[in-house]
Amino acid sequence: MKLIVTETYEAMSRAAYGVIGSLVSKKKDAVLGLATGSTPLGLYRLMAEDRTVSYRDVKTVNLDEYAGLSAAHSQSYAYFMRENLFRYLDILPQNTHIPNGVAPDPAEECARYDGLLDRLPRDLQLLGIGSNGHIAFNEPGTPFDARTHIVTLAESTVRDNSRLFDRIEDVPKQAFTMGLADIVRAKTVVLLANGRNKAEAVRRLIEEDADPALPASALKQHEDLYVILDREAASLLHETA
Ligand code: GLP
Questions:
Q1: For a tag site, which of 43, 88, 178, 182 has the least CB within 10 Å?
Q2: Nearest alpha carbon, ligand 1 atom 8
Q3: Catalytic amino acids?
Q4: Which residue range forms the structural domain that includes residue 6?
């Protein structure tokens, strides 16, 4: 594991862009696993601003989507990706993939996504982390060998994510998520965390053994894992405190 502790959110975003930008500059047809949430927004801004890098041959595969929200819904992750990243890049819309939140047959949609993940091995997977240690929407207790599935969101996740909705009742209770088995299949994994409310999950990830109670700990087996933190997210680590 490469643990990088930076001073600020901006420095964390720049460190992440150092990894992703140089990959896409070297490998024009890279396959990127992308994440939503507020954590990667600074990185996405840097990607959008850098006009020297082309995404014409890049493909992207997103981690998750709320069940019941269509790609046109302003709270959907498909909408988030278009608004915060894709519209600024020369990426082709047909090369961007995300689960279909309104698929008529959810089991079929999960199987479709697994097929996609098999066909498009990711060069890099970007991740945030939930305050309870979830990655994508793999909540505590998810088996490490899970593939794409529908989850019922933990109460803490609904609460955390409600800040982006008008009312907590509007937060969907279920979501499609890439499973832990596929997240760890990416060649390189970059996990970002900033802010004090991620510090305990980060501490458990770095200092404790792998355990499904902390889904992010599935990453501990990965051979090319970057954990990039700001000072607050690193504040409970014993060795860097
Ligand atoms: C959601 C997403 C995760 C994300 C997490 C943290 O639950 N499904 O992929 O990592 O929130 O979000 P934030 O970056 O806003 O703290």
A1: 88
A2: 136
A3: 64, 132, 134, 139
A4: 2-176+195-230
Rounded to an integer, what distance in angstroms lies between the CA atom of residue 94 and that of residue 141? 34
Residue 173 contacts residue 152 (beta carbons within 8 Å): yes
Expressed in angstroms and rounded, the spacing between residue 234 Cα and the centre of ligand 1 is 17
121: Cβ–Cβ under 8 A, 6 or more apart, which residues?
31, 185, 186, 187
CATH number for the domain harbouring residue 93: 3.40.50.1360
Q: Is residue 133 part of a domain?
A: yes
Residue 93 resides in a domain: yes
Q: In the prediction, which pLDDT does 164 show?
A: 86
DSSP 184-209: TTSSEEEEEE-SGGGHHHHHHHHHS-
Report which ligand 1 atom has the smallest distance to the Cα of 127. 10
* 8 A C-beta contact, residue 122 and residue 188: no
HSE of 133, CA atoms in CB hemisphere, 13 A: 21
Q: Domain count for the chain, please give it.
A: 1
pLDDT digit string, tens, across residues 69-115? 999 999 999 999 999 999 999 999 999 999 999 999 999 999 999 99
Report how far ligand 1's centroid is from the alpha carbon of 130 (Å): 5
Task: Report the mean per-residue pLDDT for the chain.
Answer: 97
Examine residue 238 and state whether it is found in any structural domain, yes or no: no
Is there a domain that residue 16 lies in? yes
CA proximity to 22, closest of 223, 188, 193? 188
